[in-house]
Amino acid sequence: MVDSRAGYSDAITDAGMEDPMTFFARVDKDRCISSGKCVGDRPSHFRFDDSELAEAIPLVEIENPADFYAVVRNCPGDAISIVDDDGNEIAIH
Ligand code: SF4
């Protein structure tokens, strides 16, 4: 016997299990002036590359974007943004 509710149930389950949006930091190295502010404030998310320019540590998620905006605002080079998992910038600066 075929359960006619199976498809409906699967659709609900799929919708309910949709991945929540994740956010990541991004650094525009052309704008970074190597102040070290982000690396000092958020060593869990930023590091220096071999040229002493900041970069976001890959795959480290931002758990609270609203709280993270302080890091974006405090960058003297206006180099940091927050992006979603599709790479779309969500922080306007
Ligand atoms: S705070 Fe901005 S300018 Fe300073 S190191 Fe980080 S990205 Fe570069």
Note the main attributes of this structure.
two-stranded antiparallel ribbon, alpha+beta, two-stranded antiparallel sheet, disordered N terminus, binds iron/sulfur cluster, 93 residues, Alpha-Beta Plaits
Q: Which ligands occur here?
A: iron/sulfur cluster
Distance between the termini: 59 Å
> Helicity range of the residues?
25-40%
The rounded Rg comes to: 19 Å
- Helix count, per DSSP? 3
User: Mean of the pLDDT scores?
Assistant: 84
Subunit organisation of the chains = single chain
**Biggest sheet, spatial arrangement of strands:** 1-4
CATH arch. level architecture of the domain at 20-84: 2-Layer Sandwich
Largest sheet: 2 strands, antiparallel
Question: Helix and strand succession?
Answer: HEHEEHE
CATH topology group of the domain at 20-84: Alpha-Beta Plaits
Q: Given the C-alpha coordinates, what overall shape results?
A: globular
